[in-house]
């Protein structure tokens, strides 16, 4: 037996080295996916979103990736290409850190059937079938994110099975890094979404809030999330006490609190109660000094989430049209269903939707939301790019380009938008020391682009390759694999 074993081992060794040589020879042309332990990205212009404009680029660079992390980065005359490394030719490309969508929901698909509480199309598509589809489609949804250059996401609330999504992403060879919150602790209930593991749970007392937070803490959430829905001024003080109970319980375990609060009075109540992350714009008034003071004192992250309301309006008025980036990078199955209102018999369409179809509302975000973004940014509050993807009309992955275009329209420079989608996104994802910039020791998460994103953020969608943890992906191959 022994000689046979050693002969087999010899053969195996030979085969392994032959395979390695073959891979090194072919991988530069066919880099998808690539698991070689040392990779050198050579000749591209690295963009450093953490720096000011004058020092934000390194042309003709070398990035060395070893075992999934960046082991060296600098200009080609300073950083040698290690012998035996697999080389990716990045001449003529721009290289940015992997994008981070700091506000998504995997239990929703972005199609018309995904929020029956907002548009009740259950007669056309039972909600249970929609959710079953979303669970089964997760591997494809993960790939859609990578294809759009999004290498980390924050799922900021969903059913308890959200925690399984984080585990599934960790196990998957092609998935973004996923941070999660569990069910939303809510000031109102939302029966249409309750299939036994509801994403939104109404809480009426501080004790109930603490009990639900405890249940969620057992699953080690990255955030506890509150859905702070305002009904009247009279209710606000009592609601603030409930939110504070949730915040205190979360903070005692070292877990931050994310809050959905879209009105100025509610956002301030959330900040007083202990919010660490505001996942929406204040969209009913200009943020005032008190808001900015509270936000700075709590060192919060602010996610403007500008596109999501437009997404609902466009999709439910049947005027939603895919962007060029969505046509190339979004889930083909969802794209095919976005125009279903043209096909669903009218008697199955609720009156509210019929009204929107007859008289499509303006799709632009609120003026307050747009202006508040610049004010919050200028006050020095970190702003994380987030889409609220999964909501009706806001597709997983490629909607980041719609969101970033609006941020640029709101007055942020392309470099500031990129900083928001990387550096501050990393803070929102709670992976601040691991992702968000291209630097030694960080995970090798980056996007190679065919156009300069510092001229216009639209160029961030001109994706050549995406690298996550040192594995190289071709976005077009990712999408082909889920068709
Ligand atoms: Zn959300």
Q: What layout of secondary structure does this protein have?
A:
Elements: H1 2-27, E1 38-42, E2 45-47, E3 57-58, E4 61-66, E5 69-75, E6 86-89, E7 94-97, E8 99-104, H2 127-136, H3 138-147, E9 150-156, H4 162-171, E10 177-181, E11 184-186, E12 200-202, H5 206-217, E13 224-227, H6 236-252, E14 257-260, H7 264-273, E15 277-278, H8 289-297, E16 301-302, H9 308-316, H10 324-329, H11 332-337, H12 351-358, H13 367-378, H14 399-409, H15 414-421, H16 423-428, E17 446-449, E18 463-468, E19 471-473, H17 475-480
Parallel strand pairs: 1-6, 2-7, 8-9, 9-10, 11-12, 11-13, 13-14, 14-15, 15-16
Antiparallel strand pairs: 1-4, 2-3, 4-5, 7-17, 17-18, 18-19
Helix pairs in contact: 5-6, 6-7, 7-8
Residues 103, 105, 156, 279, 388 line the site of zinc ion (ZN).
Kindly report the oligomeric state of this protein: single chain
Strand content: 15-25%
How many domains would you count in the coordinates?
2
Whole-number mean pLDDT = 93
Number of helices, counting only DSSP H or I runs of 4 residues or more = 17
Identify the CATH architecture of the largest domain.
Alpha-Beta Barrel
Instruction: State the shape.
Output: globular
Secondary structure: number of strands? 19
Q: Give the CA-CA distance, first to last residue.
A: 48 Å
Structure ligands: zinc ion
The CATH class of the largest domain is identified as Alpha Beta
Description:
With 483 residues, the chain is an alpha/beta fold. The chain has two domains: 31-97 and 441-480, Roll (Urease, subunit C, domain 1), CATH 2.30.40; 99-428, Metal-dependent hydrolases (TIM Barrel, Alpha-Beta Barrel), CATH 3.20.20. The protein has helices spanning 2-27, 127-136, 138-147, 162-171, 206-217, 236-252, 264-273, 289-297, 308-316, 324-329, 332-337, 351-358, 367-378, 399-409, 414-421, 423-428, 475-480; strands spanning 38-42, 45-47, 57-58, 61-66, 69-75, 86-89, 94-97, 99-104, 150-156, 177-181, 184-186, 200-202, 224-227, 257-260, 277-278, 301-302, 446-449, 463-468, 471-473. It is globular, with a radius of gyration of 23 Å. The protein starts with a helix and ends with a helix. Residues 1-35 have low confidence and may be disordered. The structure holds zinc ion (ZN). Zinc ion binds at residues 103, 105, 156, 279, 388.
């Amino acid at each position: 037996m022994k000689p046979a074993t050693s002969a087999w081992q010899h053969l195996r060794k030979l085969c392994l080295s032959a395979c390695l040589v073959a891979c090194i020879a072919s991988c530069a042309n066919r880099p998808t996916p690539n698991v070689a332990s040392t990779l050198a990205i050579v000749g591209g212009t690295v963009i450093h979103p953490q720096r000011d404009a004058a020092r934000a680029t390194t042309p003709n660079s070398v990035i060395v990736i070893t075992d999934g992390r960046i082991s060296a980065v600098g200009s080609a005359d300073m950083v040698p290409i290690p012998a035996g490394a697999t080389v990716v030719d990045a001449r003529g490309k721009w290289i940015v850190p992997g994008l981070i969508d700091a506000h998504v929901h995997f239990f929703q698909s972005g199609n018309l059937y995904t929020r029956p509480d907002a548009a009740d199309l259950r007669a056309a598509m039972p909600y249970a079938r929609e959710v079953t589809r979303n669970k089964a489609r997760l591997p494809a949804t993960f790939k859609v994110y990578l294809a759009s250059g999004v290498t980390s996401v924050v799922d900021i609330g969903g059913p308890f099975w959200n925690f399984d999504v984080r585990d599934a992403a960790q196990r998957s060879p092609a998935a973004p890094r996923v941070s999660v919150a569990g069910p939303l602790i809510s000031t109102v209930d939302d029966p249409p979404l309750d299939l036994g593991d509801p994403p939104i749970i109404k809480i009426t007392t501080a004790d109930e809030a603490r009990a639900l937070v405890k249940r969620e803490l057992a699953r080690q959430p990255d955030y506890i999330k509150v859905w702070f829905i305002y009904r009247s001024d009279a209710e606000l003080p009592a609601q603030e006490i409930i939110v504070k109970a949730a915040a205190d319980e979360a903070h005692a375990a070292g877990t931050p609190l994310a809050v959905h609060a879209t009105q100025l009075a509610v956002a301030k109540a959330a900040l007083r109660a202990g919010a660490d992350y505001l996942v929406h714009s204040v969209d009913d008034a200009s943020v005032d000094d008190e808001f900015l003071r509270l936000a700075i004192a709590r060192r919060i992250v602010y996610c403007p989430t500008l596109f999501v309301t437009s997404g609902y309006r466009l999709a439910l008025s049947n005027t939603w049209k895919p962007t060029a980036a969505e046509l190339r990078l979004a889930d083909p199955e969802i794209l095919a269903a976005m125009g279903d209102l043209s096909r669903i018999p009218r008697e199955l369409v609720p009156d509210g939707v019929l009204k929107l179809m007859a008289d499509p509302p303006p799709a632009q975000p609120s003026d307050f939301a747009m202006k508040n973004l610049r004010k919050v940014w200028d006050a020095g509050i970190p702003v994380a790019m987030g889409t609220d993807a999964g909501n009706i009309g806001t597709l997983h992955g490629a909607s980041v380009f719609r969101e970033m275009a609006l941020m640029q329209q709101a007055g942020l420079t392309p470099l500031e938008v990129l900083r928001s989608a990387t550096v501050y996104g990393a803070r929102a994802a709670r992976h601040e020391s691991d992702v968000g910039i291209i630097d030694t020791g960080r995970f090798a998460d980056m996007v190679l682009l065919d156009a300069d994103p510092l001229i216009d953020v639209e160029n961030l969608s001109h994706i050549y390759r995406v690298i996550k943890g040192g594995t190289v992906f071709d976005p077009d191959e990712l999408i082909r694999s889920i068709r």
